[in-house]
Design a protein that fits this description.
- This protein is α/β, with parallel strands linked by helices.
- It has 2 domains: 123 residues, Response regulator (Rossmann fold); 97 residues, Arc Repressor Mutant, subunit A, CATH 1.10.10.10.
- Helices cover 41% and strands 21% of the residues.
- The chain contains 8 helices and 12 strands.
- The strands form 3 sheets. A 5-stranded parallel sheet has the order 2-1-3-4-5, with helices on both faces.
- Helix 1 links the parallel strand 1 and strand 2.
- It is elongated.
Length: 237
């Protein structure tokens, strides 16, 4: 079952060179009881990461010296990385897509609404808890009223069975397994392609449209990130 209580003493690393923004982010996190470490550079963050374990990194893109993008690449190449929420002044879809495809779990653009920021933080932390709690070889995904059986390919919303195409089924399970992470169209194509499924370009949007129609009211949980891709909104379930 997706969704679990959060430990307020979770360690969060904030990497932001602008002091006022860094302190503002830290203040919002501290008010929720989280443990926060502040860094003004990627190099300082690397030093902290070598000494401590963090559940989440709030990472600015443009930093002095090593950029947040370069730090993200280094962390993902290492094979061991906490969830990463990028906070950036870059708003072009192509730039956001680059960050997501390099491994960022989510992003928020500056200036940001504190309530939206905290919702994104909680969603990523819940995703961590859920991934740790979910059995490795589970054949079942249950999110709210939606139940997906990965072995029998059965999908139900409440007691109502849904009849999905192979592409729609793979699209749905890919988004559910991402646990709230934004997936770009290219990432979805890469995950769905194969096993007799041929997906290219904007046909992803067509498949999402068809999937939403079949999911009915539950489809409100599939969020469109304009110019980027899609995700399942775990913070609203």
């Amino acid at each position: 079952m997706v969704g679990s209580s959060l430990d307020p003493k979770t360690n969060i690393l904030v990497v932001e060179d602008e002091r006022e923004i860094r302190e503002l982010i830290a203040l919002h996190l501290l008010r929720q009881g989280f443990k926060v470490t502040e860094c003004a550079s990627a190099e300082e963050a690397q030093s902290q990461l070598s000494k401590n374990n963090y559940s989440l990194i709030v990472l600015d893109w443009m930093l002095p010296g090593m950029s947040g993008f370069e730090l993200l690449e280094a962390l993902k190449k290492s094979g061991e990385s906490p969830s990463i929420l990028m906070v950036t002044a870059k708003t072009e879809p192509s730039e956001i897509v680059s960050g997501l495809e390099k491994g960022a779990d989510d992003y928020i653009t500056k200036p940001f609404d504190p309530n939206i920021f905290m919702a994104r933080v909680r969603a990523l932390l819940r995703r961590n808890v859920s991934v740790q709690a979910e059995p490795k070889n589970s054949d079942r995904i249950s999110v709210g009223k939606l139940v997906v059986n990965l072995k029998s390919y059965e999908v139900k919303v409440g007691d109502e069975p849904l009849h999905l195409t192979p592409s729609e089924f793979k699209l749905l399970t890919t988004m559910l397994e991402s646990q709230g992470r934004v997936l770009t169209r290219d990432q979805l194509i890469e995950n769905i392609q194969g096993e007799g499924i041929n997906v290219t370009g904007r046909t992803i949007d067509t498949h999402v449209f068809g999937l939403r129609k079949k999911l009915g009211a539950w489809s409100d949980n599939i969020e469109t990130i304009r110019g980027v891709g899609y995700r399942v909104k775990m913070d609203s379930i």
